[in-house]
Amino acid sequence: MAHGLATSVTLSLPAWLVESIPGLPEALPTHESQMALVHRLADRNWREGGGGPFAAIVVDAVTGELVSVGVNVVLGTGVSAGHAEVMALTLAQQRLGVWDLGAERDLALVVNWRPCVQCYGATLWSGVRHLVVAGEGPELERLTRFDEGPVVADWAQQFEARGIAVTSDVLREEALAVYRAYGQSAATVYNARGAGPIEHTP
Ligand SMILES: [Zn+2]
Hints:
The chain is an alpha/beta fold. The protein has one domain: Cytidine Deaminase, domain 2 (3-Layer(aba) Sandwich). Helix content is 38%, strand content 12%. It has a five-stranded mixed beta sheet, sandwiched between helices. A hairpin with a 5-residue loop joins strand 1 (55-60) and strand 2 (66-71). The site of zinc ion has 6 residues, from helix 5.
């Protein structure tokens, strides 16, 4: 290859998650059951070492059908964009063969915190009609030391204005428990150039 330039990229789910897919429920009818799965995947993900304590799923908002799963794969793949939301949204698009997840179905992205500045855009452009989060606010950055970037203060209203209904505070305390365990571990925080969040607590 002239110049040695890369010409493609592959982002795969970690082996432990691929192996667990046959055991996942085909449908998760409530926000709580959806988020419980997200928390379980997020907690295992950082312990397995492939990425941060983040997971996301795409589900059918009407039936609860599980359409895709994603976890943060930044460390395992060496791709900084490999966040859980990007994985779940992209794998849903791969499975359904569409770039607009809202074109024919009423789909929801379920994730264990308000999306970071990158995933905020990825969610907007994905076409999903619903976003379900465990919470928002500075607790994530305080507990994990991840930098979520300059997300706008009216992020939820901006989603709503574009036809994405936002549901927050689903199993919030359980999300914080995952972040707390992560923050108390020796796991790698991979912010570019070591950029830290604005606020720190001991
Ligand atoms: Zn993100």
